[in-house]
Each structure stands twice: as structure tokens, then as C-alpha cells.
Design goal:
The protein has about 260 residues and is of the alpha/beta class. It is built from eight helices and eleven strands.
């Protein structure tokens, strides 16, 4: 059973039909905007170990993590230190959730407890799907001292398609929305000291077209690919925290007037 309505009634609908004999439940992202729903679904997963609870996150389903790892090793880019995504009015929630899901897969954390979050989010009701569904724009940042940091920014006034920049200790992987990948790296990096830096040189460009003609729900149902619902629940938790934590801007003058030094 697939829950993909244009609202946050997915968990409510699951409650209504969960007694039906079904072994696989697929929830469209974002799964929910309720902490109670998250707790409820986690309990359902524990109680029904024989059933499959899955979600739809594009880059996870397409195996982008494995592709990035292969590129980084082959081109000696070092360790991933940061992921930046920027784009236009693509909806920070519906479009951005795919990138947040990929980030969670890359850092492989069992709990979000130690991740720190900062956000600046605006809401509008210009969604082409429904005027009752809010569209989010702005930015979300995530960081933890021992893990790669993450930032996503979708600007409402821009029409740019999203671009992802994977920053490594010795290079960059740039992924465009059309599936093209641009790889750059630093040569003779072994000569550099901690405080030194060099301009990364372009190495090559290749196409990453496995998303063309890819139907995520068909792939899940055919057991060709799957993403556990737990990742989708963590993505929902991040967006709930981002909305709760979204800050308001102050003038520089106001900040300096209240400064302690």
C-alpha cells in the first residue's frame, strides 16, 4: 500500500487500513509533520517485524552514495567534509527532503541527538499541487564535529534547478539536476601543510543518467531498491526541528548594541 496524498493524512490513513493483510507499506516523503506520528510509526515497525515499512527518497533509491564513494576513491579526493545544495523555488520540504535523506545515508547515524541545526525558513501557499499545502524556501544547516556538515538553500525568487556540491579534503564533486557530474581535485596535495590551499583543477565530466525513466515506486515494489521508513522519519524530525528553530533576522546595528564586548 502506497501513501502519497497531497497532505499529512498519510499516517491517519495507515491507522484506518493497517488491519488489512498487507506486508509492504510505502510512505511518500515528507512522512508526517507530527512527533506523535513518528513515535507511533516507530512502535508499529517494532511490533510488525515481518512487514516492510519503506519510504521514497530519490537519491537513496538510485544508489548515489555508492557512486560518490567510487568517484572519490578513483580520483583520490579524500574524505567528504561538506555537502552544499542550492537552487531556486523548488520547495525546501518536498524537493529538499531527497537531499536530507541522502545526507543521512552518507553520515550513517543511528540517532539525530548530537546533530546541531540552524534554519531560516519562509512559508508561502503557491504550491502547484494544492493551495492548502505550504511551500518552504530558505535554508537548513546541519553539523556535528566529527561528521561532514550539510547546508541546503532554496531561494524563492530564483528559478534555478538544484545543484549539489560535495566538498572533499582534496577535491569537489558537482552534481547538476540533469544528472551530469563534474569532478575537480587538487594536484600534489601531499606537499600541502594544514594551513595551505590550492585551486582545484577540473578533471572530467560524466553523466549520471540512471534517474532517466526511473520509477521509484515500481523499483520498490519489484524489490530492486528500497529505503527503510526510519530514514524518512529522521528526515521528518529534521524538518520539524528546522521549523521550530527558524530564526528571525536582526539588523547589524541591533546586534552590536546588545553585544557584550
Amino acid at each position: 500500500i502506497i501513501f502519497c496524498d497531497y497532505s499529512f493524512s498519510r499516517v491517519e490513513n495507515y491507522r484506518k487500513i493497517k488491519k488489512l493483510k498487507c506486508n509492504t507499506y510505502i510512505f511518500e516523503k515528507l512522512v508526517t509533520n507530527s512527533l506523535d506520528d513518528i513515535i507511533f510509526l516507530r512502535n508499529e515497525i517494532k511490533k510488525n517485524q515481518e512487514k516492510h515499512y519503506l519510504t521514497h527518497l530519490k537519491w537513496n533509491l538510485l544508489g548515489l552514495k555508492q557512486k560518490l564513494k567510487k568517484i572519490a576513491v578513483e580520483n583520490k579526493l579524500g574524505e567528504l567534509v561538506r555537502l552544499n545544495i542550492f537552487g531556486g523555488n523548488c520547495c525546501l520540504a518536498m524537493g529538499g527532503a531527497h537531499w536530507v535523506g541522502l545526507y543521512l545515508e552518507l553520515i550513517e547515524v543511528s540517532s539525530l541527538g548530537k546533530l546541531k541545526i540552524a534554519s531560516d525558513i519562509d512559508l508561502n501557499y503557491e504550491s502547484p499541487r494544492s493551495k492548502e499545502i505550504p511551500m518552504l524556501s530558505g535554508s537548513i544547516s546541519l553539523k556535528e564535529e566529527r561528521l561532514p556538515s550539510f547546508e541546503i538553500t532554496f531561494e524563492r525568487k530564483s528559478h534555478l534547478a538544484p545543484t549539489a556540491i560535495f566538498i572533499y579534503t582534496l577535491g569537489i564533486i558537482e552534481l547538476s539536476f540533469d544528472g551530469s557530474i563534474r569532478i575537480s581535485s587538487i594536484s600534489e596535495a601531499e606537499e600541502l601543510k594544514v594551513f595551505q590551499y590550492k585551486i582545484a583543477q577540473h578533471l572530467k565530466q560524466e553523466d549520471y543518467n540512471i534517474s532517466k525513466g526511473f520509477d521509484p515506486f515500481y523499483a520498490i515494489l519489484q524489490d530492486k531498491s528500497s529505503v527503510e521508513l526510519e530514514i524518512g522519519l529522521k528526515v521528518s524530525e529534521i524538518y520539524l526541528a528546522a521549523l521550530e528553530n527558524s530564526y528571525s533576522y536582526k539588523s547589524i546595528e541591533e546586534v552590536l548594541q546588545n553585544a557584550s564586548v
